[in-house]
């Protein structure tokens, strides 16, 4: 996903009503009580991107801005949404959602079709186990925003993460999780600022940086990307 954002691609999480119990509940409520067919998509767009371009929809749409900022260009005006804002777009209205320099966007789109006599039937999604303490989606979103920004970011590992350097490797350990990286490669990309902070060396290839960061997330080692030391929650 981080590589797609780096290439100015929007990531779409389609039909959440089929994947998450909370959206399934909204879907069934609107279907049973209001006769409305609804669908729920989340769009994650990098800064300075155009997404779907200018288009119209054949149904009404409710936009809920979750994080970042996004400008919605209409024929006669532009509306910029920030986190917490809600926008209603009538079907058939020409619109063009774009992000500007320095502003990523995460928004929820709710599509509404009225007066439907029958509705698609699918099983209720299973509840996802609650991983209290996992790095949240918001923290990941902010980390990727800092990583893709113009400044050289800093990798902050959790205070409970224990780094250990051997002759040819550097190992990060957190509880039962461990990530071992080639020392020469790691220090070609990062330089140590303190025990748990590593800054990206100027000119380092962002794709290499992203691959290492994703290795931390995949292994379950708590890290956050920022410009100053931050408090990091652990993972289960």
Report on the architecture of this protein.
With 236 residues, this protein is of the alpha+beta class. The protein has helices at 2-6, 21-34, 137-148, 183-189, 206-219; strands at residues 11-13, 36-45, 60-73, 78-82, 86-89, 96-98, 105-114, 154-157, 162-165, 169-174, 177-182, 190-194, 197-200, 223-226. Strands 1, 2, 3, 4, 5, 6 and 7 form a 7-stranded antiparallel sheet that branches. A 4-stranded antiparallel sheet has the order 12-13-8-14. 22% of the residues are buried.
Sheet/helix structural class: alpha+beta
Assess the beta-strand content as a share of residues.
25-35%
**Major pleated sheet:** 7 strands, antiparallel
Indicate the percent of residues in helices. 10-25%
Question: Could you give the distance between the termini?
Answer: 23 Å
Short description:
With 236 residues, the chain is of the alpha+beta class. It has helices spanning 2-6, 21-34, 137-148, 183-189, 206-219, and strands at 11-13, 36-45, 60-73, 78-82, 86-89, 96-98, 105-114, 154-157, 162-165, 169-174, 177-182, 190-194, 197-200, 223-226. The protein is elongated and about 70 Å long.
Secondary structure elements and pairings:
Elements: H1 2-6, E1 11-13, H2 21-34, E2 36-45, E3 60-73, E4 78-82, E5 86-89, E6 96-98, E7 105-114, H3 137-148, E8 154-157, E9 162-165, E10 169-174, E11 177-182, H4 183-189, E12 190-194, E13 197-200, H5 206-219, E14 223-226
Antiparallel strand pairs: 1-2, 2-7, 3-4, 3-5, 3-6, 3-7, 8-13, 8-14, 9-10, 10-11, 12-13
């Amino acid at each position: 996903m981080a590589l797609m954002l780096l290439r100015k691609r929007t990531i779409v999480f389609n039909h959440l009503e089929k994947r998450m119990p909370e959206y399934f509940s909204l879907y069934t409520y609107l279907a049973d009580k209001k006769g409305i067919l609804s669908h729920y998509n989340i769009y994650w767009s990098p800064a300075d991107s155009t997404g779907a371009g200018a288009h119209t929809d054949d149904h009404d749409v409710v936009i809920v801005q979750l994080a970042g900022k996004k400008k919605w260009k209409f024929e006669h005006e532009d509306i910029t949404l920030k986190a917490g804002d809600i926008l209603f777009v009538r079907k058939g209205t020409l619109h063009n959602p774009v992000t500007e320099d320095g502003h990523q966007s995460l928004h929820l789109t709710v599509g509404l079709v009225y007066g439907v006599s029958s509705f698609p039937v699918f099983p209720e999604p299973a509840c996802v186990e609650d991983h209290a303490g996992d790095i949240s989606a918001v923290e990941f979103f902010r980390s990727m925003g800092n990583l893709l920004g113009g400044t050289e970011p800093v990798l902050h590992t959790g205070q409970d993460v224990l780094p250990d350097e051997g002759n040819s490797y550097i190992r990060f350990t957190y509880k039962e999780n461990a990530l071992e990286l080639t020392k020469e490669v790691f220090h070609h990309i990062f330089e140590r600022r303190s025990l748990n902070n590593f800054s990206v060396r100027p000119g380092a290839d962002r794709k290499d940086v992203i691959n290492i960061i994703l290795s931390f997330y995949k292994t379950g080692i708590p890290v956050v990307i920022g410009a100053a030391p931050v408090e990091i929650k652990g993972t289960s």
